[in-house]
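Subject: complex prediction, re-run

Hi both,

The earlier run crashed halfway through, so I resubmitted it with identical inputs.
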Amino acid sequence: MSFKLFNLLVQASAWTIGISAISIAIGFLLALVLSAALLSGKALYRRPAEFFISFFRGVPLLVQLLLIYNLLPFIGLNVPSIVAAIIGMSLCTAAYQAENLRGGFESVPRGLVEAADMVGFTPRQVFLRIKVPIALRLTFPALVNEAIMILKSSSLVSVVGIVEITRMAQDLASSTYLPIEIFSSAALIYLVICWSVALAGRFGERALPGGAK
Amino acid sequence: MIFDPNVILKHLPEIAAGTGVTLALWIAGMLLGVLIGFLVATARRYGGRFIDLPLGLVVEVLRGTPFLIQIFLVYYGGPFIGLSLNPIPCGLLGLSIYASAYYSEIFRAGYAAVPHGHVEAGECLGFSRFQIIRRILLPEMALIVMPPSVNLAVILLKESAVLSIITVPELTTTVSAIGSQEYAFLEAIFLLAVIYWVIVEAAARLGRFAESRFSTYRFSTP
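This time it finished cleanly. Structure:
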């Protein structure tokens, strides 16, 4: 296997990383809304959020991607497949991240909230200065894990025709008859990406306030 | 969307067969994964550094790469090293290997979570290593590993949909084929999502029920 083939796989990894990063970011914003709905205490908001989360955690990502890929043109949205892929991945990761965030908000020590109330923080200040920073800090490890899961799951967008690492490897393997070399190289590239994220996560964990020094 | 229930009724036997393949692959893959995972975790614990390090590396590689790539490697790469497998055995092999890596980590954590004093107590009473594993570590571990195992089981059920890409005749393959055949792809995928949702929800509830039954016998350690 030549260096040129390997290089093509490395170039394709830009798509893997790009799609994953955008999906994680959009998913995070959606997850904030979902977790707020879960914690609102109003059934009107909670029920739809629970329904959404249950669906996107209960159906395989592959099926979700196929569903969205076929649903969008049906409702008159003719978007490029990359958009369908990002929507699918974002919705899926939003469901998982929302559960993490809910856990984070629920683990904020009550005493800290009460203390802030005592010293005269407004509810808004309690939320922005106590709850949000602590909850985000608590969910950071879960966020890193989710990022790694999404990086690996992004291999599934190859089925809707996006030439990221997996699709590139498939194309190269069928044209060169070197499946072992090509797929092993693809695996190696995924490993390097995932390990880098895990390592960065560990550094971040230590650098953030409250980390083990 | 014109949803014709007759189409579903007409293809009910095929859908049932596809569901059967999915469930069979899932359960077999899970059992093999638990078995191999347990052996790997045990070998890593008792086998010394020269077994622990290479096995640890394999586990990390399996956990750090997409399931789809692993499947492709076995399915398309296999024939080049004399391993020509049909889709179903190939899918089972891929699913078991993938599962075993994650189960081995669960068992490793389980071994580590059993209080050391219990093992020492066994040693003091003259238990052999095998007896310690069978009489002390395994029963205590069973409770500890239950919740993450149930979690992983649900993940595996969903991952099994990926096997459709190498044409294993499971649920996803079957229902999407019906969709193309009947020119109702969107309806078929929608049905597929609902079937998975129901099965996954049922599996998760069953798992939670098993957990609650198990935890009745939970020992208390201060």
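Chain A has a mean pLDDT of 91.

- K.
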